[in-house]
Write a structure and sequence with these properties.
heterodimer, A: alpha+beta, 12 helices, 15 strands, globular, B: Aspartate Aminotransferase, domain 2, Aspartate Aminotransferase, domain 1, seven-stranded mixed beta sheet
């Protein structure tokens, strides 16, 4: 049996309705900041319960622009997690700031208890990452941010439709960045991102900045960048927006089935703690495994496309050399990097495929 | 309906979820309630959902939170379940009926004609799980400055032009009663909304009017979704898509097989119905029902007595003949068995039962 990791061919097996809208776009010609962008932004914001959503070129740029908008300048520090995708940290560096890492907890998310000691007078933002679609414990982080008067920019790139206590992830900080990359739960046909904020001032500023700082055709109010969500991608997004709830429900169901199937394999397999009351969006389904590399090889041989997100922590990447971190600085993160494995759990799998994954993992450890 | 079969498939998960609630012991407004709320909201494409004790309270509290009460009129369908009209009356307002179309949903022209200076809201019912004509009803509401409160009790997961029911009006009111597509193990309901203030008001209203632990600005209800029910619903929610797809498949089969003998519900343009019930319109309905019963096929009538002809509606002053389509439908409609676990053989028995009554044979 084959259990593939990607499903884009299945998701877009019948693209005719989207293509019809794109044909209409070609007739109309409003390729940049067309009507569909505004409509998509409005519905996106509404779905999250936020005041504003601002479409930008990618999730990475969403984070960079959001950090700069809340006041991050060259020489400032931004606190984040070292086990994230490289783009979170790249966004901080692109804003001219210095990433300061904090170790993670058993849920693979930034450990709120360790944040305080990483905050310095130069800290200009906290950037918690809702990794895998699992909401960070925002109550603790909001409390620190308020006490230390530091804004929060949520890296929600992997966490569209995730929520804590009925409140959507991305609405806890001053601003949040989302990715609409093809491998995300709300995925368009290329790179695209979204910034979400409740602040009218931030939203106005960001709308200017993503479009060269142009207030109108001929007036540049601030120097900006070119980072617009394409009208074409907004059309794709509009088709998919209302399906994301059901997609995430399927992923939750699949994750619970895998959780139940893998639980008896402790201590070979450690399923991370699942907090009641949060909606984990399961962009990736990640557990910890003994002899991880052996398991991944075995699964791939048996047709199960297992992956690792991510094998090398950011602080140990060559690019991070100048930051002065060394192995051993973030022991939990580093141990997890050796143990984590991502199993396929996406919405297009069948129960038979999921049960096959469990069977194969079980077989690996009973050899 | 065969809830026991549905539960057999997910029984281990359900019991584990109950166990977790027993562990933490927060039986009232525990964390599972909030989890359910955010997941249900997302399913409907809205930011907020507020869990309720049942679908009737969902409707009642939504009306009250919108400020609808004594002296106000709310327009709804006379062929619905009692709770639609009851919630309006319980809010202190007056139910005003408008006739329906053959698709069993409100006729927008009749709605427009029923608007008076006292009208404050329209309550379209997505009866049988089929979306009402929300575009035209929304336009009427906008023209007259009325609220739309969707009675989506039978329609969880239904969409119109890709938009989920429950996201069209000011509030969407759902029942999660054991006979519904998303079924709790007892009474349960939920209200969806895009309005943060309304969501906050509903949270207060369902919990004695309590703001925080000790402060009450206005008297409220006790109409909370139980933690236990939320925990069970959280386990079942991921399966809703599959279950609905299975029902739609059975509906398609019935439609194919029975379309020549009786009037069958069609999916209109842009409509994605979820078939809470599969309601045919049949000649000699009562005889057909007896014929089916004799062959071991259960069928039901939803509902034999229109609301305006109920004893409870006496003081509203309606009489027989006021809603001719509704009254005719009440004599024609019959709900055939439809649930995800219905086997091929059972579906065949239903089809054969109906066709044989009309002296027809199944096309093989």
């Amino acid at each position: 049996m084959r259990v593939p990791y990607s499903y884009l061919d299945r998701q877009f097996a019948e693209p005719d309705a989207i293509l019809a809208d794109i044909r209409e776009l070609v007739r109309r010609g409003d390729y940049t900041l067309g009507a569909a962008v505004g409509e998509f932004e409005e519905r996106y914001a509404r779905m999250l319960g936020a005041r504003h959503a601002i479409g930008v070129g990618s999730g990475t740029e969403a984070l960079t622009l959001a950090l700069q908008a809340v006041g991050v300048r060259p020489g400032d520090e931004v606190v984040t997690a070292p086990n994230t995708f490289i783009a979170s940290v790249g966004a901080i560096v692109a804003a001219g700031a210095r990433p300061v890492f904090v170790d993670v907890n058993a849920e693979h998310n930034i450990d709120a208890a360790l944040i305080e000691r990483a905050v310095t007078p130069r800290t200009r933002a906290l950037m918690p990452v809702h990794l895998s679609g699992n909401p960070v414990d925002m109550a603790a982080i909001v409390e620190i941010a308020q006490r230390r008067r530091v804004p929060i920019v949520e890296d929600a790139c992997q966490a569209f439709t995730a929520a804590i206590g009925g409140r959507a992830v991305g609405t806890f900080g001053e601003a949040a960045g989302f990715s609409l990359h093809p491998l995300k739960p709300l995925n368009v046909w290329g790179d695209a991102g979204m910034i979400v904020t409740d602040s009218d001032t931030l939203a106005d500023h960001l709308r200017l900045r993503r479009n060269h700082g142009l207030r109108d055709r001929d007036t540049v109010e601030i120097f900006g960048v070119n980072s617009r969500l394409d009208t074409l991608q907004a059309l794709v997004g509009l088709h998919l927006l209302d399906t994301t709830g059901a997609v995430t429900e399927r992923r939750i169901g699949h994750a619970r089935r895998l959780d139940a199937g893998l639980a008896p394999l402790a201590p070979h397999i450690t399923v991370p703690p699942r907090r009641p009351g949060v909606r984990h969006a399961y962009l990736t389904y990640v557990v910890q495994a003994q002899d991880r590399d052996g398991l991944v090889r075995f699964l791939v041989e048996r047709g199960v496309e297992a992956k690792v997100h991510y094998p090398v922590p950011v602080h140990l990447q060559p690019a991070a050399k100048d930051l002065g971190y060394k192995p051993g600085d973030f022991p939990v993160c580093e141990r997890q990097a050796r143990e984590i494995v991502t199993l396929p759990a996406h919405q297009h799998l069948t129960f038979d495929q999921l049960d096959y994954v469990v069977e194969q993992v079980t077989e690996f450890y009973s050899r | 309906m065969a809830l026991h079969l549905q539960h057999r498939a997910v029984r281990a998960q359900l019991l584990a979820a109950v166990d977790r609630v027993f562990e933490h012991g927060q039986y009232v407004l525990g964390p599972e309630v909030e989890e359910f709320e955010s997941r249900f909201a997302s399913l409907c494409g809205v930011p907020f959902a507020v869990g309720m004790s049942d679908g009737t309270h969902a409707l009642l509290l939504a009306l009250r939170a919108l400020g609808i009460g004594a002296g106000d009129e709310v327009i709804t369908a006379p062929n619905s379940f009692l709770a639609s009209a009851a919630s309006i009356a319980l809010a202190g307002a007056r139910p005003v009926f408008a006739d329906v179309r053959d698709d069993l949903n409100l006729d927008p022209e009749q709605v427009a004609a029923a608007v008076s200076p006292s009208t404050r809201a329209i309550m379209p019912v997505h009866l049988t799980g089929r979306p009402a004509d929300m575009k035209r009803i929304g336009a009427i509401a906008e023209r007259h400055g009325l609220h739309v409160v969707e009675d989506a009790a039978q329609a969880v997961g239904a969409t119109l032009d890709g938009q989920a029911v429950g996201s069209f009006g000011a509030a969407g009111c759902f029942s999660l009663h054991p006979l519904k597509n998303l079924a709790a193990c007892g009474d349960a309901g939920v209200v969806t909304t895009s309005d943060r203030k309304l969501a906050d008001a509903l949270r207060v209203e369902r919990n004695h009017g309590l703001r925080g632990r000790d402060d009450c600005d206005a008297w409220g209800y006790n109409a909370r979704l139980d933690t236990l029910q939320a925990a069970l619903l959280n386990e079942k929610l991921p399966y809703l898509g599959r279950w609905t797809a299975a029902k739609r498949q059975i509906a398609a089969r019935y439609r194919d097989a029975l379309g020549d003998a009786v009037a069958v519900p069609e999916d209109g343009p842009g409509e994605h119905a979820v078939y809470q019930t599969f309601v045919i319109r049949a000649d000699r309905r009562d005889d057909l029902q007896r014929h089916l019963a004799a062959r071991g096929v259960d069928s039901k009538v939803h509902y034999p007595t229109p609301l305006h002809l109920q004893e409870a509606a006496a003081e509203l002053g309606y009489k027989r003949g006021d809603f001719p389509v509704t009254e005719r439908l009440a004599t024609e409609i019959l709900s055939l068995p439809i649930y995800p676990e219905l086997t091929e053989a059972q579906q065949e028995a239903v089809v054969d039962g109906v066709l044989s009554f009309y002296g027809r044979r199944a096309r093989r």
